[in-house]
């Protein structure tokens, strides 16, 4: 009844406003259009400068009146729309309690207003929560460990960023692996008004390692219990999320629920939607103690300041110790302990409406949390089956999840207007560098690419490798795009050692790659391959950036700088490790050259020895690499000498030399100014020579280039004159930089270029 009265008062107020405001406005405008007791025309003719009555001040007054008039008309239209909506909704207020199937158990401590919110729907004004201030920072804590959880966190963060209108501060409790992955990701993502802090999860293990836990989350599944101790002491409140959460609304709406907490309520939780804590799932099922159905801890609102004052640490520890005497271990990690504490202290919990945590495990009551899928706020994939869970709306949920999974993260770099971002040194330096470029330069796009920050996700798949203890280990380094995925299995069969790959993909392509890799027995059997995703941005293929990313993340003392289109000879990995020792690579600046050959046949009986390769060369089945189109690139290798060589031999640098080499991991990076096709490897070999590396050809090593369709970049190089002009300009600038950096010795590169 009270709600009906309030609705009538709102209706009456809106009606009076719609009728009264226009009248007052027009009286004001009519009175304002008189000057000295005479009406002033607002017509264009009268307002011309040649009119005797024209003055600058009167013109400004008339313009301000016209602006105000338009503003009032807009306000009136909005009020009329609001009134019509209120009229169309008014009948539902009389029947709301019967039109929904939400559980009426929700809303402990504030049940009347909470139930009103549930009945009226998620967007109802009656259940509207207090507004969050425009630039108020929302704090979110997430526990994340390992490679798979790091991927899940990205999808969660995308869904939050997509809807958010407030600055965000993520507190990530992460192990060393997740920290490395996510620190690089957020640093290269450069999302405005987002701050990231990391807390070492490994340091917290001792806090919870005494609790036996059967849940698949392991020891990390218990770490939400120690957040009051882990997070900064001046942090008063935080939203805690599992990694398998997807947001379908602005997280500020959830943050606003803190204002509803009363008395000693310090935990905001959604009721568990399965029968787990009722203890009737199977015979002799004995769950931890819980209040009713218990609560799910996938989404938690924590009032940290009050929890600390209540001595939360002592509270949960005593409860856990007592219950473990009979339960022996937890089955649902921290959730069991949270529920045991709440069972003893029910006043601690504020029950959230269940649409804040729609739990998609099998046999749950999640369908009672919404009448329509548009009512959803938060989806929780809290089953080990994840996307294969049973639910009649699972296709909708899956599509929503996949939308964020494949959503272009670069689009989430948008500014929050009106909210000043914290000063970011990297962002400031980037803006400074870009501002120094001439946008009228015909090569502007080439120059700009050098400074583009590409979002990077390291170790996209599980990686596990310990380098050999004899310090001879070698990592194969390469880069690729989506059209070269078919080469991965073949390379893995030819090279048994560690591999570091940088893949240039869109968000959607990254998921296609994930499905491809997970469906490949060859790739899944290899844990020593590091896949680093560099997300697409701009119009050029950043080939040298990709190489640098792959080079930077190797764990061995040496690396073989290859390309994805080449298959190394069988046994090359072990041969290179022996060569490293033989040629004392650890104490000398050498670049070991692996001679490159090519075939024009898509099906090749790969030579198993040097003798077999020489026979195929003689028969015309194989050729020295680029012999027909770019002889200078590999001619200094001296293939004639290689045919009969039995020991390594030294060769000298020549113009346009671009061999594939084995070097120490501390060798210089590739120059990022070269993108797409042309001079990307040539420049790197030139710099190795400038740093006095000795080029040594290995007599019993070889690699073979497999045929493929021309890349998009080589097509642009061949067809676009401006592309070739810009590449020539970049080459000249690189040579000038070399001369400035290396002095007199680098003058030979200018001479060699002029003579070539």
From TrEMBL:
Membrane-spanning parts: 12-31
Bias (Polar residues): 44-58
Annotated compartments: Golgi apparatus membrane
Taxonomy, superkingdom: Eukaryota
InterPro entries: Glyco_trans_8, Nucleotide-diphossugar_trans, Xyl/GlcA_transferase
UniProt xrefs under SUPFAM superfamilies: Nucleotide-diphospho-sugar transferases (SSF53448)
Pfam families per record: Glyco_transf_49 (PF13896), Glyco_transf_8 (PF01501)
UniProt KW keywords: Glycoprotein, Golgi apparatus, Membrane, Multifunctional enzyme, Signal-anchor, Transmembrane, Transmembrane helix
Signal keyword on record: no
Membrane topology note: Single-pass type II membrane protein
Biased composition (Basic and acidic residues): 59-78
Principal subcellular localisation of the protein: Golgi
Start and end residues of each stretch annotated as Disordered: 40-109
Catalytic reactions on record: 3-O-{(1->[3)-alpha-D-Xyl-(1->3)-beta-D-GlcA-(1->](n)-4)-beta-D-Xyl-(1->4)-Rib-ol-P-Rib-ol-P-3-beta-D-GalNAc-(1->3)-beta-D-GlcNAc-(1->4)-O-6-P-alpha-D-Man}-L-Thr-[protein] + UDP-alpha-D-glucuronate = 3-O-{beta-D-GlcA-(1->[3)-alpha-D-Xyl-(1->3)-beta-D-GlcA-(1->](n)-4)-beta-D-Xyl-(1->4)-Rib-ol-P-Rib-ol-P-3-beta-D-GalNAc-(1->3)-beta-D-GlcNAc-(1->4)-O-6-P-alpha-D-Man}-L-Thr-[protein] + UDP + H(+); 3-O-{beta-D-GlcA-(1->[3)-alpha-D-Xyl-(1->3)-beta-D-GlcA-(1->](n)-4)-beta-D-Xyl-(1->4)-Rib-ol-P-Rib-ol-P-3-beta-D-GalNAc-(1->3)-beta-D-GlcNAc-(1->4)-O-6-P-alpha-D-Man}-L-Thr-[protein] + UDP-alpha-D-xylose = 3-O-{(1->[3)-alpha-D-Xyl-(1->3)-beta-D-GlcA-(1->](n+1)-4)-beta-D-Xyl-(1->4)-Rib-ol-P-Rib-ol-P-3-beta-D-GalNAc-(1->3)-beta-D-GlcNAc-(1->4)-O-6-P-alpha-D-Man}-L-Thr-[protein] + UDP + H(+); 3-O-[beta-D-GlcA-(1->3)-beta-D-Xyl-(1->4)-Rib-ol-P-Rib-ol-P-3-beta-D-GalNAc-(1->3)-beta-D-GlcNAc-(1->4)-(O-6-P-alpha-D-Man)]-Thr-[protein] + UDP-alpha-D-xylose = 3-O-[alpha-D-Xyl-(1->3)-beta-D-GlcA-(1->4)-beta-D-Xyl-(1->4)-Rib-ol-P-Rib-ol-P-3-beta-D-GalNAc-(1->3)-beta-D-GlcNAc-(1->4)-(O-6-P-alpha-D-Man)]-Thr-[protein] + UDP + H(+)
Assigned protein family: In the N-terminal section; belongs to the glycosyltransferase 8 family. In the C-terminal section; belongs to the glycosyltransferase 49 family.
Protein name, entry field: Xylosyl- and glucuronyltransferase LARGE1
Taxonomic source organism: Apteryx mantelli
Higher taxonomy: Eukaryota, Metazoa, Chordata, Craniata, Vertebrata
